[in-house]
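RETRY 2/3 - previous attempt timed out on the joint model. Re-submitting the same 604-residue input unchanged.
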Amino acid sequence: MSNTKIETKTAAQGENPGRRRRSNNFTKRDRAVIAGLVGGPTILHVVFVWLPAIATILLSFCQWDGIGGLSNIHWVGVKNYAQIFTLYSDFKIALRNNTLWLLWFGLIATPLGVVLAYFLDKNLKGTKFFQTAFYLPIVLSLAVTGIIWDYIFKVNGFLNIVLGYTNADTAPSWFGDPHKNIWVVLGIASWRHIGYMMLLYLAGMKSVDPSLREAAAIDGAGEWYTFRKVIFPSLRPVNIIVVVVTVIEALRAFDLVYIINRGKNGLQVLAVAVYENILGESQRIGWGAALATILFVLCLGPIMVYLYQNFKKVD
Amino acid sequence: MVTGKQSKVGARIAVAILAFFSLAWVFPIFFTVYESFRPYNDTTKDGYVSLPKHFNFDNYWNALIQSGMWRYFINSVEVAVPAVLITLFLASMVAFVVSRYSFKFNIALLMIFTAGNLLPPQLIFIPIFRLYLHIWVPTIINENNVLYDTQLGLILIHVAIQIGFATFVLSNYLRTIPKEISESALVDGASVWAHYFRVILPLLRPALASLGVLMTTWIYNDFFWAVVLLKSGSKRPITAALSNLQGEFFTDFNLLAAGAVLALLPTLIVFFVLRRQFVAGLTIGSTKG
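RETRY 2/3 succeeded.
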């Protein structure tokens, strides 16, 4: 991919052939160095990421209470999956919440990020300030984010005081009510997600060839038409990143619900369910592994799209 | 760009909408900062939405010194700094090889790294957790002699995961740098190591800076791995320690507010001082086709 050019050039210039760094023409020392440069990091990555991932998928077909050695692991086929779908009541809520999370991010938060980016791209008055404000939540950890928003949503917090609920007994409990709290959490998660999406789209819009816009303006194209036909199509690489980020963030959701109420009482998500089955009161490693595998399968689509997009033209 | 009366009105409306949203965006942060300066007794009596009777740094003093929060900051530094440095070093080596030499395994290797970084952490964590319970470490690192509940273990997993993203980004970056620069090194007969260390590494500096800033923020903000791999609260970095502080400070939310503000301060400083690098890091890969 990269070296063929160098080879032909140096060969044409009649360089000393011993100096040519063809992949099969290295000195012994160079070979060792290359093996070390690539091998070390690769082994680390494979041993600590890929092998555990494969092990989890295998474990999802096994039963293991975690006590005793590996010999206590028994193959049970799809039993874990069957049990999760039928016996594990939190699973349905978790799956529903992750789906809601995904839909909310995809249909509401991400488009809002596009709209904001579109307006900020116009370089209106105050754009610098607006941009800073929208970027801010991106740098904050979700744990801190959860604590910050607690002052707004707690029973005696800002929102209830402004709404006039001064009696703590009758005031709505935004985090405590299992019918409401997921929506509140989605709102909080959007606080961060919208800014992130805005940042990505804004960078993409800035890199749109200005002559394209000028051409559209000269042709008398309206704003909406220009956006749809000129700007949006050139944002394709951004769109792919956005899909990947959106899906993966929606499925990975853990920090926010964990800091708010440990992911219980209406705030169950798959990532917390995995955690609960491994580190919670009852260790059901097979269930945890099956849940993690389900999470993985859901992520698989965007991962493939991303890989395809990035590697299709490398050859 | 904006011309005509109609667009001017449109622009005003757009500014008004943006102004409203951006103020709403920063409000929760300011509200938390505001409460963090007020004593518990005042807000209990008057409620959170009230003018301050006392306004001081007491909560900060109590959180940082008396509650010993400063120790968690040290934990954060002890985890994030080595993790980021090792990641950048290892990733730059792989990126160098795959972008400067044509091996058959290059693309497969890059795909492994890129995809590995996208795997959900929950898929990895179960075997890692079990493995860490069995990996022996010397008593200096952990008196229980296992990798579980050590910062070393946390650093290791951060490096292993982040290396995927860093390799992907750095190799993309190197691909945009003309090969002629490498050619001159080759003509000089430099060894592979010299090529990497003296030619490529200096070229990578801007990309390393952006990635470094971004990954420091990520690792500093990490919650999941620190919670699942560190049992002792005292070893946790600040972000994960907040969930303990939340329990300890349960009765004093103003103190917790000060704790939260302290925890977000380093990331805010990074954001305001190194914003260019931070944004560049986040948008790497999204602007290239």
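The mean pLDDT of chain B is 88. Closing ticket.
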